Amino acid sequence: MDRRRFLTRATMTMAAGIAGPFAGVACAGERGEAKPVRGYGPLRPVADLRDGKVRLHLPDGFAYRSFSAAGEKFSDGSAVPGRHDGMAAFAAPRGTAYLVRNHEVNGPVGAFGDKGKAYDRMAGGGTSTLRVTRYGEVMRSGPSLTGTMMNCSGGPMPWKSWVTCEETVNGPDVGDDHSGGDNSRLARRHGYIFEVPVLGAATAKPIRSAGRFAHESAAFDPASGALYLTEDCFRFASGFYRYLPPANPVKAGRLLDGGRLQMLAVKGSPRQDLSAGQRPGAVYPTTWVDIDDPDPTFTGKPSNDEAVQAVGRQGRAKGAAIFSRLEGAIHHQGTVYFVSTQGGAPVPDAPVPDGFGKGHGQVWAYETASGRLKLVYESPRASMLDLPDNVTVSPRGTLVLCEDGDGDNYLRGLSRQGEIFDFCRLAPISGDAGAEFAGSTFGPGGHTLYANIQSRQGMSFAIWGPWQRGAF
């Protein structure tokens, strides 16, 4: 665990004197001190209580059960799709939880579930909803939104809905993307966000005013009624957005279309490149620029590369900031924490990852009241943090980061005192080297951490144990 300690300023990401959560990162950094890591101890192989196979490495005292794997059956008899991704947990009766879970399936492979209810009968992504015990026993499950595509992450809403995000702009009006698939076979345009109520099926109506771009995550600020959105434009610059609906969704009981989409910019510094390595203590005053055409109509069938940049280019033409691959986002106590997967300076002795950005990860914090943007953490080396993706927050305010690296992938913790530690390592999956963690979310009361494996052989996990022993 010594390698997890913060030893130099290069591993720090906030300046001394900045108050609030994660200020401990700055204080130790300015003094050049190491901090004791309040993790949970060494990781060891632990057998899955479902079938005895070792799928996760965890600290002593923790146990888990996998459930709802790709190819298994929902309660209605239809097949569970793969590519399990973003997820949220909501309170259900008698201490159980409702899980709303994304499936990041690309290509015109056909909708799962009832095709008559699908947004696009040819698209294979969407969401499933499950009721589970805190030990991962499935009580009921089924499709809740089908016919969407590349449902990567999203976010839980306080009116008991999940907003799911399509990380693509595929459709019959644009060229094929780099992963293959014939877009001419699609019936509808994609690249939108959709609302999925916890109870009942979704309407399958996109919120078009929230933009058509490579959406990743959604985080709602109840104080202002704004929905913050991240963009993972893998090969090009990405942006940080907010959608201002025409009515407060808490009062309306749902997210309404017809609002205004904006993109974040740094005050006095148009097109500030925040994808590059940042100075210790990076803090930026911000403003917002309007996106005039959030749902562009394409003519002449442009290439996918052109279409995926259409919304972001509008914002950057007005001075919006540049990020690298924004992925997970979560709102907590007036702050939206979001992850830049490949942001930061190049990491010594580590290959430069494919896509836009040369670093191995940044964690940003946007204060919704002040408009101040702060860098919480920037990875100094891949062994400490390697390409973070989804993010959630524990009951005690520690961030849980899901990795999407090239080697071993971990669930890492980043505490409010600035300590980063390993909590869980994914055991290798035969024939699926690209498997990664996704969808981490704590269930009601904090007893269980639910998480997904995003892969062709995707599945979900319930993890429980002596949380009081560490920072979660």
UniProtKB/TrEMBL annotation:
The UniProt entry, under InterPro entries, shows: PhoX
The UniProt entry, under Pfam families, shows:
PhoX
User: Domain of life of the organism in this record?
Assistant: Bacteria
PROSITE patterns (UniProt xref):
PROKAR_LIPOPROTEIN (PS51257)
Q: What is this protein called?
A: Phosphatase
The protein's organism comes out as: Nonomuraea cavernae
Q: What is the lineage of its organism?
A: Bacteria, Bacillati, Actinomycetota, Actinomycetes, Streptosporangiales
